[in-house]
Amino acid sequence: MLHDLLVAMQGSGGDIFVWKDSKFEVSNELGLLHPGEVNITEKILDVATLYNKITTFCQTYGGGGCVEPGGDCRGGIYLSSLSSALQATALTTYYRTVLDLEQRILHDPELPLTAICVAMNPHGPLMATLALFVTEPLFKAPPMTPH
Question: Which Pfam families has this protein been placed in (predicted)?
């Protein structure tokens, strides 16, 4: 189960932790997980969902800027720069935490879910803010006023 959780934390669903309706969910149809484990895992998966949203933005707009005339700019150089900055900072820090957890799990296969949750919790607030920033429209048109 911990291996599947690590995979989900890197943005890929599986049999236990599935990507459904734009978020990761615990599929506990067989009842293999205790309700407390499901609760802790959902908190971890909330952060993984945010990571996935930011990664999707970076994949969409990374490497942007029009190289060829008439090419797909996908937001131009500003969104491309934002994508690069997100990858170099928040996503790299998150990914290093996941790699550290993988090493800890390899050395201690009985690592409790609470230890994983404690390691991932610091990423939650930043990922929530960044995910909101990259998924909400940057500019809203002002209301039209009659002349």
Answer: GCP_N_terminal
